[in-house]
Hints:
Layout: E1 20-26, H1 30-35, H2 38-45, E2 49-53, H3 64-69, E3 74-78, E4 88-92, E5 98-101, H4 106-109, E6 114-118, E7 123-128, H5 135-158, E8 162-167, H6 191-202, E9 205-207, H7 208-212, E10 221-222, E11 234-235, E12 238-243, E13 250-255, E14 267-271
Parallel strand pairs: 1-2, 7-8
Antiparallel strand pairs: 1-14, 2-4, 3-4, 5-6, 6-7, 8-12, 9-12, 10-11, 13-14
Amino acid sequence: MIYLSTFFSTFEIKSLHPTMKIISYNVNGIRAAISKGFISWLQQANPDVICLQEIKATPEQIPLLDFELAGYPYHFWFPAEKKGYSGVAILSKVKPNNVQFGTGIAHMDFEGRNLRVDFDDFSVMSLYLPSGTNIERLDHKFMYMDDFQNYIDDLKKEIPNLVICGDYNICHEAIDIHDPVRNKVVSGFLPEERAWLDSFIKKGFVDSFRLLNKEPNNYTWWSYRAGARGNNKGWRIDYCMVSEPMKNRIKRAVILPDAKHSDHCPTLVEIE
């Protein structure tokens, strides 16, 4: 099922900023994140648009009114068919012209992994690419990656200005992972996965964070084991990918590691 937002007719919408601030955040369960102060953090971070992944809930289980009161009257939820699993969402201060739930490809959509909102001159997608936790899931991940590439190739003909934010479950380069040697046989840093992401970027996207930040030790996910986050032994697997025609409109791109509602942290891009 797909769910549209409800909102107040009297809600006063702020005009668009000179730049649009977009955040991507794998919350690893929206209800758990809310219990850790997520909504207060969201108000302080104050993005125009936030893309969420791994919401693990349906709208009936989420305090939607709290998001509206926090300044996000437009909220769109695309949960997985399986309860308590996967799912993506987009919250926006600005009313989109169009909302697209899924891709129309069944094996991609039943797990709630793609949601897109279209604004006047660009579109924003929340993406949650599968992980490869075992052989079966790794095969599914590669199928998804191939079909997603084809889908995006076609979509760019219609919408050349795209921002695809989300958890790609892949580290691109050695600089994006704390231990590239020992992790080269682990899904998320397999040569084949990295080659796919490299190809995806070369076919017309900009890794907004790496465009503006060249330094190592910047990560967006840490294992819960062995104090990984405290020791900053992480992986950068969350990206705000911006299509090439919009490259010169990228004004800021940062990671927000101080947000600790999840085993991931948010990543942010500002678009002129």
